[in-house]
Design goal:
mainly alpha, three-stranded antiparallel sheet, 3 helices, about 50% helix
């Protein structure tokens, strides 16, 4: 009986290599840094809105500091934005202070110019009453040296009140100031009280 040859050896088992995919976690965000930059930019843009500008600047500084601290913990993500927010927040507050100082100075200068202009208008009124209205009245009343009251001059002047609505006062005869001839006119000024430093007199040409 013939002997059969042994069967060929089985091929080795082959298992293809398994590819292992390591899932990389997404980078951590830094919302504090984004908020700081937005708030800081708004603080600069709105530097002319005083209270709003200050609040935005302070928030920009706070969020900027928090954003920098968070960036240091997560590998520096957003540190540049946080720093930018902190810097713009400080700059926005400083810009707001400059705007406030500028506005206050402008208001003060405007008030000074307005006060001076008002003084000049009042001075023109007393001068015209003393130097124009009174001579015309004197020509028509040669028998009298002085008007009985300011009402006697109303036919020769457009108005006998000063720019603040106070009735002008005439000084004539014994009440004339030293060195003044004819008639003098006095405005009691803005405060309405005679004898104070804001009185306006026809015989004084230089403002106090």
């Amino acid at each position: 009986m013939a002997v059969l040859p042994p069967p060929p050896p089985s091929p080795p088992s082959y298992f293809p290599p398994v590819e292992v995919h390591h899932q990389v976690p997404p980078p951590k965000g830094n919302g504090m840094a984004v908020a700081a930059m937005v708030l800081g930019i708004l603080a600069v843009v709105l530097c002319w809105v005083m209270l709003v500008n200050f609040i935005l600047g302070v928030l920009g500084i706070i969020f900027g500091a928090l954003g920098i601290a968070r960036a240091n913990k997560i590998g520096g993500t957003g540190k540049g934005m946080a720093l930018a927010g902190l810097i713009t927040g400080i700059f926005g507050i400083l810009a707001g202070i400059v705007v406030v100082v500028f506005v206050l100075r402008a208001v003060e200068e405007f008030g000074g110019h307005l006060k001076k202009s008002t003084w000049h208008l009042a001075k023109i009124k007393v001068d015209r009453l003393a130097n124009e209205a009174y001579p015309q009245w004197a020509m028509n009343h040669p028998e009298k040296a002085c008007p009985d009251s300011i009402a006697d001059l109303r036919d020769y002047a457009l108005d006998t009140k000063d720019v603040w609505g106070h009735e002008l006062k005439i000084l004539c005869g014994p009440s004339l100031p030293p060195g003044v001839k004819g008639m003098a006119v006095l405005s009691v000024g803005e405060d309405g009280i005679e004898g104070t430093e804001d009185d306006i007199k026809s015989w004084e040409s230089v403002p106090r």
